[in-house]
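Input record (one chain):
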Amino acid sequence: MAKVAFLGLGVMGFPMAGHLAAKGHDVVVYNRTFAKAEAWTKKHKGTTARTPREAAAGREIVFSCVGNDDHLRAVVLGENGAFAGMGRGTIFVDNTTASADIARELHGDGKKRGIDFIDAPVSGGQAGAESGQLTVMCGGEPAPFDRARPIADAYAKAVTLIGPPGSGQITKMMNQMCIAGLVQTLAEALNLGQRAGLDMDKVIAAISKGAAQSWQMDNRWQNMIAGKFDYGFAVDWMRKDLGIAMAEGKRWKAQMPVVALVDQFYARIQERGGGRWDTSSLIQPLQKP
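The corresponding structure, as predicted from the sequence alone:
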């Protein structure tokens, strides 16, 4: 069992830290809103800290899952940041979906302090976090990854080292790009079927058995045709992720015409007040032009 800290107790971090505690690890949690950290300790075995530095002190591995690059810098760097409390030979595992640039930056900064940094964004959403079945895509060096992987297994079904620092983040970008294009075409297909008056239960039963099958189809089609989107992975978050992907695409001169188009469709959802709707809400402007 390991001494770990977890920084960030949002819809993902709260259950992820809970799985670490459930596996018997010694967990200290930090959240910007301290009341949420206190709420976590009422549900799980562990202790709270008032600052990232305090949470990281004496820990072997520090995990984080926050909102974006700026939030990550805020909990890692500075006088009260986690790095200031971590000792040499420790590991920082970041589960935030952020840029590859911040991953490379913090890896370099950590190296100067004798701290290993692993970018480890996750896929699987809130449901995957709660069930402990997340997919974790990692960038970093093999030795610290091998030490951290058995601990991260507490909240994951697969933890894979992709390559050097930043590789995990680029892999997550690819993941989000695939989802965005798939959801848009699924939305267009379902909208066609509805307008044509087809029995959608029969349609999905048929096409989900063939090459069109996908996780999105299996898990989202019913709510999509019902027009129910008040759950799941928010449009605001997806636009953040697609923005990161397109910025990385410019670095490598990788064209992303479909991603750019779907990003515009998500902007329309935001304009309709659906920033917190699930990403499957791409069908809403088709149902209600």
